[in-house]
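Recall that a protein's primary structure is simply its ordered list of amino acids. Everything else, from secondary elements to tertiary packing, is in principle encoded there. The following example makes that idea concrete.
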Amino acid sequence: MGIYENVKEAAEKRGYSINRLEKEMGLPRSSISKYNRNTPSAERLQAIATFLNVPVGDLTGDTSSTSEFTARNEEERRLLVLFRNTDSVPEEEREEIIRHFESTVDIYLKAKGIIK
């Protein structure tokens, strides 16, 4: 299968049509269908893979590139996408974001009585 077919299959497994995927990712309509003829950029492939929570290799057909860091469910995927959105933030500030997130989760869990 080609990239378009792989993207379509991965999207459908997650309940997305190609049109919905393009819309939710802010891509131009029918841009993914062009992958039948043109190869997308590495950045675009990575963005689609991140959104769909699949290794890039699943989209390119290279199944040897699986990752232990692939999210296990939708909630983890959303957190992973949020974190990857900080790529342009300086490392020191990213560490601060992580500390705040960890603290917020800890406060929430304690307030709900989930942990002591």
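The chain has six helices and no strands. The mean pLDDT is 88.
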